[in-house]
Write a structure and sequence with these properties.
Length: about 375
């Protein structure tokens, strides 16, 4: 590691092109930290003096002081942190979430309190869908967690424990075969292939639109998904319906996109219009991914296999489809066997009287039936 000899607690690293400070923090741990705004040795020494003053205060108070970083600066640092950790499509969507958060939160990061976060949630709940608020709250909580645990800029995560708005109970988010067929027939021609491929593979919108012809192996029926949400390449074996969709497309050069010229935002907007026209207002392009997963589980595929196909990072993400599994429902119903066994002893033969008339009359109870006697007894008691 190329660095000059450490003097006065500061040193210059040629390989990192910057000044660094060496000091003991309030917990007695030796720290080495880059001084972002120092361009000269004197500036570095002044910055180290501020750090030592802060450490002394923390020792005296027994608590780490919140930094003076602004909310905007904190969000910029988070963007740099995420740059190499998420896919390009996820990173591109980050700007919109951070702009919304910055607009509703205090200018100073240390002023973001639980009350401020709750107020943000309440305000946004009246403007957008609960799922959107949940995504924004998740992002904020992740930023504040990093600021507390890794960057040591704040003392507490104000978003921790804040409840998301409750989502209204509605239909399960997957399409029936008839709904999918109607959607493909209603959609404009340029939309049909990406919609059909999403429903037959479970791929995300970004994974499909970033797919190139060199990543499609027609002979082996494989797709190499490189632009995934988790940033790792996923190899997906496709079924016959998916192969029919791919075969219907004009094959381009290896570097060309399979869906050349299709805009992701436009595709999502137009899909919502199609579903709304069909009377399915809660469906979107992403519903096609849920549809593929739901159908797989209903046909008996294991949750582990479905998780691998969808590219889920943890099994917990696939658990939402567990209730659709025939084995899951059968196992649950079979649990009643031990409880109910022996309770119903009447045989089929005993259900017929000697004259052949049913034991339960078709037109309601007779006057001498048990129900009639109960009503008569109750009436007599009232009198």
């Amino acid at each position: 590691m190329a660095k000059a000899k450490e003097r006065d607690g500061v040193y210059y690293r040629a390989d990192r092109r910057g000044w660094w400070a060496s000091y003991i923090d309030a917990d007695g741990i030796h720290q080495r930290k880059k001084i972002e705004d120092a361009h000269t040795r004197k500036q570095a020494i002044d910055a180290l003096a501020q750090i030592k003053t802060k450490v002394a205060t923390e020792k005296r108070l027994g608590v780490r002081q919140d930094s003076e970083i602004t909310t905007k600066e904190l969000f910029e640092r988070f963007k740099k942190h995420q740059k190499s950790r998420v896919s390009s499509t996820t990173y591109d969507r980050l700007d919109g979430i951070l702009d919304t958060l910055e607009k509703h939160l205090p200018a100073q990061a240390k002023a973001i309190t639980k009350a401020a976060v709750n107020e943000f949630v309440d305000t946004r709940a009246n403007q957008v869908k609960p799922a959107t608020v949940a995504k924004e709250l998740f992002t904020l909580s992740k930023i504040l967690r990093l600021a507390v645990d890794e960057w040591e800029l704040l003392n507490k995560n104000a978003a921790h424990g804040v409840k998301r708005p409750k989502q209204a109970e509605g239909r399960t988010k997957y399409l029936t075969p008839g709904e999918l067929r109607a959607a493909l027939q209603t959609a404009e021609p340029w939309m049909r292939a990406p919609m059909a491929l999403a429903a037959t593979t479970g791929c995300r919108r970004g994974e499909l639109l970033n797919l190139r012809w060199m990543d499609v192996d027609i002979k082996k029926r494989l797709l190499y998904l490189r632009e995934t949400k988790n940033g790792t390449t996923r190899i997906l074996r496709v079924n016959e319906p998916a192969m029919q969709v791919l075969s219907s497309l004009p094959e381009g050069r290896p570097g060309d996109h399979v869906f050349e010229g299709v805009d992701g935002q436009k595709l999502s907007v137009y899909c919502r219009r199609v579903f709304h026209r069909l009377g399915i207002p809660d469906a979107s392009f992403h519903t096609l991914r849920h549809t593929a997963a739901s159908w797989l589980v209903m046909e008996g595929a294991s949750l582990y296999a479905v998780g691998q196909i969808l590219g889920h990072k943890t099994p917990r993400m696939t658990q939402r489809y567990a209730h659709l599994s025939p084995e899951y429902m059968a196992d649950s119903m079979d649990r009643l066997d031990g409880v109910m066994r022996g309770m119903w002893t009447e045989s089929a033969a005993s259900r017929t009287l000697e004259a052949g008339t049913p034991s339960v009359p078709e037109n309601g109870p007779k006057s001498d039936s048990l129900s009639h006697r109960r009503v008569t007894r109750k009436s007599a008691n009232r009198e």
